[in-house]
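Give me structure tokens for this 304-residue protein.
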Amino acid sequence: MKFSPLFWPIQLKGNTIYILDETRLPHKLVYIKAKNYLEACKAIKEMKTRAVGQVLLVMYTFILSKRQNKDLAKVAAAINATRPTLSFKSLTEMVLGIEKSGAPFEKSILGFLEMLKAKRIEQAGEMANLLKDGDVILTHCNISGLMPLIAELAKEQGKRVSFYATETRPYLQGSRLTAWELMRAGFEVTIITDNMVAYLLSLGKVTKIIVGADHLTQNGDIANKIGTYQIAVVAKYFKVPFYVICPPPSKLKTGQEIQIEIRPPDELKIYQGLRLAPKEVKAYYPAFDVTPAELITKHIYLKV
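Here you go.
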């Protein structure tokens, strides 16, 4: 089975964590190093890795910190403070529970990660089973290597699928990451700007929409990359099925309880050193929005 580099973008080798720097793609496949929990937290805050990469980085950071005899409660607090919408608390609580129980620490964490890998493949298989030959899929942002895997599994079932990927402002994850990994895997993909979705659906060019989720609440609401909500609204209007690849539900009851991360305004005004807007202009960048459960056709859960 072929995997995108984004499917498992973090590696622990010796006492160094190697992080695929997603901000350098598609120009360079570069790994940066983290040798302690502060460097790992910095990589999360700077969006060097996202989605499943952040989960892997958190778990490997605990292994490294344990080897370095760090106070794991302090490490957990630093991790939980990095990006509020993503809710690392369930992970940090699990790890602190392992330490408290006296169970083999590294073996337990590595076993969890192996299970996570298997469950992610199961998610891709479940989504592939819902596809039909000739489906044209619209996606937004990036689902850490799952989209090419879904397409590959569909291909094994004799189904031909193609993609539209939103460019996903301001970090351009759709055009930089999703389009790159789908083309790399040999699948047809067309990029569009974020404001073309309604027109595209009005032309009947899309048969299914698949997005990821960074947070799932008890009632089925999700938080995902900003722009997901408006795509779900348009999908409902045009009766296009809207599927979500999502993590297990958190302890929050509804999406209204999710704390939305507000990122620095300069991330909207400057991209890779290029100024896109007047220096003095105000900018507002909520990194996520919340899509209500009633707009979602089906949740494809990570069953851990």
